[in-house]
Prior knowledge:
By secondary structure, this protein is of the alpha/beta class.
Amino acid sequence: MGRAVRREGVSAATGFAISAQRCPDRPGLIDERGTLTWRELDEQSNALAAALQDLPAGAPRVVGIMARNHRGFVQSLVAANRIGADVLLLNTSFAGPALAEVVAREEVDAVIFDEEFTPSISEALSERPNAARIVAWTDEPGAHAVTVDGLISGHAGQRPSPTDRQSKLVLLTSGTTGSPKGAKHSGGGPDALVSILDRTPWRAEEVVVIVAPMFHAWGFGQLAFAALMACTVVTRRRFDPEATLALVDEHQATGLCVVPVMFDRIVELPDDVRARYSCRSLRFAAASGSRMRPDVVIAFMDQFGDVIYNNYNATEAGMIATATPADLRAAPDTAGTPATGTEIRILGPDFQDLPAGETGTIYVRNSTQFDGYTSGATKDFRDGFMSSGDVGHLDDAGRLFVVGRDDEMIVSGGENVYPIEVEKALSGHADVHEAAVLGVDDAQYGQRLVAFVVLADGAAATPEDLKAHVRRNLANYKVPRTITVLDELPRGSTGKIVRRELQALVEPD
């Protein structure tokens, strides 16, 4: 194991090399194609790394990966690390124009992608004709000239040549309100591991089901951590709520890694479907990436046990806080208490510390902060504390509550309104399944509130009914001017509501 670390260096892929030495014949990855042991995963990643070095244009310096959760994603990640290439994880929801902007900005010279994304990749690389294109997953073997499977087969038994370059991981911010930015990470050190192990009951060499997207900071972090712990990773390309419960029971998984909207979809399954699965092997079900619905948290734990761990992370800062099941029973909407090695301050408009209960900007300090955006920009820092970009408050028990993004605050007629409080009021109506609130420009008030709701099955509440409900629970200036009923809210692949798509639905006043 020590030799593996010296050979690999410390990177996102170090855990895979360690596990190949630690327990080579144990299952390392299980996907729709079957099982790979840690040894097989290691050898195939070496073969792919050697193949990347042998590409006609030479070894790539920046490798983009646009793939769903499967072995090809993992092999590509490890292989790129082993040749010292920077790894850019691409959101599978990207359309051609956004993708083109990112690959040009990050100077990508090789892209590994699933067959289904071929049109987007072709459009994005139209100005980069020399970039290598490698297909990671295809439903038609032989349909593509260059594939991950073909490169592995053609370089079986080979290892990559040593390199002096140190691979870095480039994670993209969610970009739900604007263009996603690249955040470069060189690793978080031991505090990043301690912060997870102190709160979440991982155990080495057990089975973990990871259905959170691996291209996202949260899903990727769970994958990397599972490899360090030699935990068998069970995954599937597309999330399905019932199939996820089935995987937990079939493999007796002790861990489940999701994004919050996946809890919603599981709880929304018919009662008789959920009742088919016990999931009693679970010790933890960890989530991050967006707000969790308190009613869903309680419903899931009432059926499957007190196993939910809510993690508040930022692409730029790693783990910030974790809410344990006990925290969530006490306050289902809390983000928890600061992670080990992390300090949190709530600062007001003049950057003064605010007391418990008062809402301000969340600033954090830890060892997992990023190396800066790839554009050369960085975040706002105050006395070594970095702005998370969110607003929130602490309670008297030291628990953090995230109110929303600092750029989501709405000033209507001189009054400050945070969308989440109006969303909570709307969601408290029996006919409302979920809600989203935002501010739009208004000539008279500066901004006005607009809301979008998804009604529960069979519900018949009208926008006027819902306005009256908000008026009974909040100040009059917090009542949305308009409420639009949708079949569903637009979400990105990590489950976050894409507010710019809602903005496009707003009719001019």
